[in-house]
Every structure is written in C-alpha cells, then in structure tokens.
Design goal:
503 residues, alpha+beta, Beta-Lactamase, five-stranded antiparallel beta sheet, 17 strands, coiled coil
C-alpha cells in the first residue's frame, strides 16, 4: 500500500485515512509496517517511507514490552485469538525522539490480495489521561478534606431562592447536629434550621444565588432531634455551572454554642460585678460620712479634755497633778493624731483628684521647714533639683510629709536625722521616680511589704499610728504609681515613689 491505488474507490479510502485525526497503521502478517497515514507520521516521528518495511516492534514498542509483543505475534500466527482487538485498549508507545506516550489502540484484521493484513487506529491520550488523573487526585483530595474537616460540612441542592435537600454531609456535621448520615440526607437545610432563624436565610440566600455576593457568613441555630438548639457560625457559597447557573451549595458549620454561653455568662457576671461595685461605692460613701461624723463627735470632747489638761498643767505646775495632767495631754494628742490619720486614710481613697502642676522643690522645702520647726531645728533635709509634677497637691504633700517624717523619726538616739530627696525620669515611659534616702534604723526585708498595711507598726521605741505609709500607698496608687522600700547604700532605707505621666 505504498503507492496510490488505481481504483477511485481505493483512492477515496486512502484520502479519508490521510485526513483522519487518529493515526492509522497497516501491518503485514509479520508485523511489518506496510503503510501509515500522516497522523501516524506526526505521532511517532517516522515518515511513511522510512517506516514501511520495518517491524512495528522496533519502531514504537518500548523495549520492556517487546518480548510480550513477539509472544503475541507467535500466538496469532498459530491461529490463537489475539489479545488486542477492536475494543480500544491503552498501551505505552515509543516515539522516534525517545518520548513515551500513552495511546488508545484498537486492532482489526482483513484479507487482502491473498494474505492477512492487520490495521490499527491509534490515538494519543497522554494529556487526556494526565488531566483525568489530576482530576481524580483533586477529587480525592477534596473528598478527603470534606470528610476529615474539623468543622461541619454540608452539600445541598439549590431549590428556587433557597437551599434544598442535603446531598452530602461529613462526620463532624453528623456529630454536631445529632442526626445520622441517612437522616440528614433525607432532609432539607430549612427542615433543621431553627424556626426563629429561618427569616435570616430567607433574607440573605436569594442574593447569594443571584450572584450579588460570593459568600454568606452569619450566626444561626440548627435544631437537634431532641429540640436543643445548636448555635453555629454559618457560611455558605455556591458552585455554578459554566453559564453561571447555581448547581449546589457548600456550607461550613462551626459550633459556637459553648462560646456564646460563656459570653452570656460573662455578661451576667459583669452585670453582677457592676451592681456589686455600685453597692460597694454606696457603702464606702456611707462609711466616709460615718467616719467624718464619728471623728467630729470624738474631736469635740477630745479637745475639751486636752484644753482642761493644759489648764491643769498651768494651774498646778508641780507634783503628781502635773504628771497626771501631762499624761492626759499626751494621750489626748495621740488620740487626736490617730483620728486625723484615719480621716486622711479615708480621704486618700475617695477624694477626687484635682491635678495641678506642683513644684517639688518648693514642696520639699516647705515640708522640711515645718518638720524642722516641730523638732526644734535638729533634723536635716537636703535635695537635688526636683521636677514639677501634675498631681493632686494636697495628697502628694501628705506623701512627702509622711515619708520624710518617718525618715527623720526612725533613727538611732545618737544620730542626727538626715533625709535626701532625688528624682530620675525613665526615658521610655517618661515616669518620674522620687527617692527618699535616710540614715535611720532601716526596715527588715521581711517587713518591707507589711509596713504599707494599715495599723502595722514595727517593734520599736518610736511612737506612731501605723497609718501614714498605708495612706501613702493609697495616694500613690490613685495616681497610677507604686511605692516601695529598699536598703540604703550606707544603712538606713530608701523609699521610692514612682509616678507615671498624667497624660
């Protein structure tokens, strides 16, 4: 068949074979190529002139399959039924340039000019099978992701303007919704949606199906068979046909029932805390009024006692009467100081902060002068250059007076009291730290926190109410700062007061 047939009918057949998009091969009984068409030339890379007369095995059969191919030829020569026939099969073929391709092959047999001939139609299916394999891999991956997703997944039909019958459901959704796989597939999405949330779907789903939005996401409830609602974070998207027609919908369900319950519990606790705080504020206000009233009622007779004691000292300036009057006077003054301390402690907690700029140089100098006068000029207070701070002036004065006063009071009998005040600013936070260094008896490390507790006093011979440092802590904390005690470098203590910027 290397030449053109003489008969018009044969020429017509050859022309049809030449224009066929599939490769067409004619073999003799020894498996030698007698003719093949242009599609075969393009497919295998051999012109018909070079291919004719050669064994097909040598041309296109990969080496590892050649033995099996020859065995098939021997069976065919012996009259056995060939394994390859008219039904297409897929086999691997070899091209002239060494490439291997996957082809779909169908073989036929005919008698021509007294001898047997074989013909085959061959189609390259390499790309098609690669695409099919990729599609199967993608489908398997999607199926695996769907089945093993940690969130509920549903696939539903699209029914008019809404979601219809459940087509598929993953194990997470089965467990979440409390229904079996078969039961869910017998229901529509609307049938398991809480009736109070059905309007949400009716309002939003039509826009998704029209293509107004690509995805829906909102919170809704589904209903379990026992009637219990399941709150979910619900999302839905639509898979469309090539013309944009909705085919089915994909839904994700994340169970948020416990999260919402915890949020509701938090709201309830916050409401209870707010009510408790309001009640506590009212109780504190009442306590402040009670404290002020009691202090006023106590101070009136106390001042009368103090005045009469002083008169007794002036009238009877000798003997036992003098000692008794002096003792009464000292006790009355201590009681008056205690009442003043309690009032100061109460005001430090609840008084409004009326901030203003306070020059600490002036404040420390004034406090030092007042304390020196009270002590007969013996104490010594020094300072570095100090900043101005935006604070509540009256309350900060209490802090400075208390801390310096303690530093001057708690010293050994043969030591001249000395307190030095310095300040430093943190460049990153802009907070100021005031440091009060004294040469006193110091504070044991185990007591450095307790000294800020109300009524706590260290076992010393020095008088005190145990209220001053507690009041200082209240004032400093109300300014957003903190106060603490360290050892001094040469004995004594260093009280530090950190005050952040007021904004």
């Amino acid at each position: 068949m290397t030449g053109d047939p003489a008969a018009p009918h044969d020429r017509l057949l050859v022309g049809a074979m030449q224009t066929s998009p599939d490769a067409f091969v004619v073999l003799d009984h020894e498996d030698r190529v007698e003719w093949w068409n242009r599609a075969a030339e393009r497919l295998f890379g051999w012109p018909v002139e070079e291919a004719a007369g050669q064994l097909l095995t040598d041309l296109v059969v990969p080496e590892q399959y050649r033995a099996a191919h020859h065995a098939g030829l021997r069976r065919r020569a012996a009259g056995a039924r060939p394994r390859l026939g008219a039904d297409p099969v897929q086999v691997e073929a070899l091209c002239r340039d060494g490439r291997r391709i996957l082809v779909e092959l169908s073989v036929g047999e005919l008698e021509w000019q007294g001898g047997r001939r074989f013909h085959a139609f061959i189609r390259d299916v390499t790309d098609r099978e690669a695409a099919r394999g990729a599609l199967e891999l993608s489908e398997n991956r999607s199926r695996t992701a769907f089945e093993n997703a940690p969130v509920g997944m549903l696939l539903t039909e699209v029914d008019g303007d809404g979601f219809g019958q459940v087509m598929s459901v993953n194990p997470a959704a089965v467990e979440m919704l409390g229904r079996s796989y078969d039961e869910l597939r017998s229901l529509s999405l609307g049938a398991i949606t809480h009736r109070d949330d059905a309007p949400l779907d009716a309002d939003r789903v039509p826009g998704l199906l029209r293509g107004d939005v690509d995805k829906l996401q909102y919170e809704k409830r589904f209903v379990r068979p026992d009637g219990r609602p399941v709150w979910v974070s619900f999302s839905a998207s639509v898979v469309r046909d090539i013309d944009g027609t909705p085919m089915h919908a994909i839904h994700q369900l994340v169970d948020i029932t416990e999260r919402l319950a915890a949020a509701q519990q938090l709201v309830r606790l916050n409401d209870e805390l707010r009510r408790t705080n309001e009640e506590l504020a009212a109780a504190n206000a009442e306590l402040d009024r009670f404290t002020a009233a009691v202090a006023h009622d106590l101070k009136s007779p106390l001042m009368a006692i103090l005045m009469h004691a002083d008169l007794m000292v002036e009238s009877h300036g000798h003997g036992g009467a003098l000692r008794g009057a002096a003792a009464i006077s000292r006790s009355a003054r201590r009681l008056n100081a205690l009442i003043e301390g309690l009032l100061g402690y109460s005001r430090a907690e609840h008084a409004a902060l009326r901030r203003q700029w306070v020059d600490l140089d002036t404040l420390v100098d004034e406090v030092a002068e007042e304390l020196a006068v009270a002590a007969g000029g013996r104490p010594r207070v020094t300072r570095d250059r100090l900043p101005s701070l935006h604070v509540e002036a009256v309350l900060l004065r209490q802090v400075v007076a208390n801390v310096i006063g303690n530093g001057l009071k708690y010293v050994a009998p043969d030591v001249t009291p000395h307190v030095h005040v310095s300040a430093e600013q943190d460049d990153s936070t802009q907070a100021w730290t005031l440091r009060f260094r004294d040469n006193g008896i110091g504070i044991p490390s185990a007591s450095r926190e307790r000294v800020f507790e109300i009524f706590h006093r260290e076992a010393t011979d020095h008088p005190g109410s145990g209220i001053g440092l507690a009041t200082c802590r209240r004032i400093v904390e109300r300014h957003g700062g903190r106060i603490w005690v360290d050892d001094g470098d040469d004995g004594g203590s260093v009280v530090s007061v950190l005050l952040p910027p007021s904004g």
